[in-house]
Specification:
The protein has 249 residues and is of the alpha/beta class. The protein has a single domain, classed as TIM Barrel. Helices cover 40% and strands 15% of the residues. The protein is built from 10 helices and 8 strands. An 8-stranded parallel barrel has the order 1-2-3-4-5-6-7-8, surrounded by 7 helices. Strand 1, helix 1 and strand 2 form a beta-alpha-beta unit. Helix 5 packs across helix 7 and helix 7 runs parallel beside helix 8. It binds 1,3-dihydroxyacetonephosphate. 1,3-dihydroxyacetonephosphate binds next to strand 8.
């Protein structure tokens, strides 16, 4: 089955209300290219205003708690994000694994919470540069997949994002051969876990994707879209990536 490409933007901790103006151009590009899925994950405070500004564009969150409610000061539940209008939630981004010490078990709990509340979970995995240099990248990443993906996951609510930590925000990207090898390894691990359904699960690449390299990266086998940081902050930079995905569909 052909997997629809998903081009998702992760604004991280960037953007205020005035930044939502960028969404109009992105929304227009998404409508002009209905053969690809487009999503933007702004800071949580901007989810509801973003949905109000561009009701047709899929808006997502960048994290959720694994519990539905409780004494977790400062955290947001998947149900709250859903109520704010989110369609997706990124879980287990390497910045959270590093800064907040999130474990695979935490990430799996968050993905399960997302599913309970009707959100698509974008589960992030990726090796550090030390791990790649040691030749451990595939072992590290497939073990993150094994630990972070809920059992029984299906493609209608699970997306994987492979983001090598050393490629995030650095302008460096892996070779296309390395991307192909890792995406194939991730799919093989998913097949062990969820059987034939693994064929339907989208595996995004993330890490310094931009308008210049997107066409090549998105054409790699088993690359079903992109998770874009810096280049998603402006419509001018993000739209060429959407177009590159659309051209391959
Ligand atoms: P950059 O595209 O800025 O490298 O960030 C990638 C990323 O971390 C998306 O989640």
């Amino acid at each position: 089955m052909a997997r629809r490409k998903l081009i998702a933007g992760n604004w991280k901790m960037n953007g205020h209300l005035d930044h939502l103006r960028e969404l109009h151009g992105i929304d227009k590009a998404a409508k002009a290219h209905p053969q690809v899925d487009v999503a933007i994950c702004p800071p949580a405070t901007l989810i509801a205003p973003a949905v109000a500004r561009v009701p047709g564009l899929a808006i997502g969150a960048q994290d959720c708690h694994g519990a539905d409610k409780g004494a977790h000061t400062g955290c947001l539940s998947a149900a709250m994000l859903k109520e704010a209008g989110a369609h997706h939630v990124i879980v287990g981004h390497s910045e959270r694994r590093a800064d907040q010490g999130e474990t695979d078990a935490d990430v799996r709990g968050k993905a399960e919470a997302a599913h309970r509340h009707g959100l698509t979970a974008i589960v992030c995995v990726g090796e550090t540069e030390v791990e790649r240099d040691a030749g451990d990248a595939e072992v590290v990443v497939t073990s993150q997949v094994a630990g972070s993906v809920p059992s029984g996951a299906t493609a209608d609510w699970l997306v994987i994002a492979y983001e090598p930590v050393w490629a995030i925000g650095t302008g460096r990207v892996p070779t296309l051969e390395d991307v192909a090898a890792m995406h194939a390894a991730i799919r093989a691990k998913l097949t062990e876990m969820i059987g034939d359904e693994a064929e339907n699960v989208r595996i995004l690449y993330g890490g310094s994707m931009n308008g210049d390299n997107a066409a090549d990266l998105l054409a790699v086998d088993n690359v079903d879209g992109g998770l874009v940081g810096g280049a998603s902050l402006s419509a001018d930079k993000f739209i060429p990536i959407v177009e590159a995905g659309a051209a391959l569909a």
